[in-house]
Specification:
A hairpin with a 2-residue loop joins strand 2 and strand 3. With 156 residues, the protein is mainly alpha-helical. It has eight helices and four strands; from the N terminus they run ββββαααααααα. Helix 5 packs antiparallel against helix 6 and helix 6 runs antiparallel to helix 7.
Length: 156
């Protein structure tokens, strides 16, 4: 059976034209996420944890906090910062990234994203320092040419 199902009925189904392909897995994840927001106890009794790891990353971070899975370690703080940055709340994201780096100053991705946050917050001098730090922390195989080009633009 194909992953996409085409319904031959000529009516609409939940606002979706039934002649359009329907991805069952994606629709089930959406239904699960909506149930979690409406009544998480009901959602967990209905689905258990079978779809938890299929949630979008931002939703999983929020849900893990509700469930007490959150450890407030550097990686968890980094993930929360990503959620704040995706909502364009750069001040909160920067604060979380600073805390993450306070716990693990070698977390290159946190350095990179904190530099971006500082740029968004017009803290150029601090961003430049972080870009230089990122270059020292980056993997040996990482192509740093885009970072160098970005640094040149910032310094111009």
């Amino acid at each position: 059976m194909a992953a996409n199902k085409i319904n031959d009925e000529s009516q609409e189904n939940n606002g979706q034209d039934v002649h359009e392909p329907v991805d069952f897995f994606e629709s089930e994840i959406s239904r699960y996420a909506a149930n979690l927001e409406a009544d998480s106890d009901d959602a967990y009794s209905r689905y258990g944890f079978t779809l938890y790891h299929s949630l979008p990353p931002a939703h999983m971070v929020v849900e893990s906090r509700k469930l007490g899975f959150f450890r407030d370690d550097a990686v968890d703080l980094y993930n929360l910062a990503g959620l704040e940055a995706s909502n364009e709340n750069y001040e909160a994201a920067a604060g979380l990234l600073e805390k993450a780096l306070g716990q693990d100053e070698t977390l290159a991705d946190a350095v990179y994203n904190l530099a971006l946050c500082y740029e968004k917050l017009d803290r150029k001098a601090e961003a430049l320092k972080l870009w230089e730090k990122f270059k020292t922390l980056a993997d040996e195989e990482e192509d740093l040419a885009p970072v160098d080009a970005h640094l040149a633009e910032l310094q111009a």
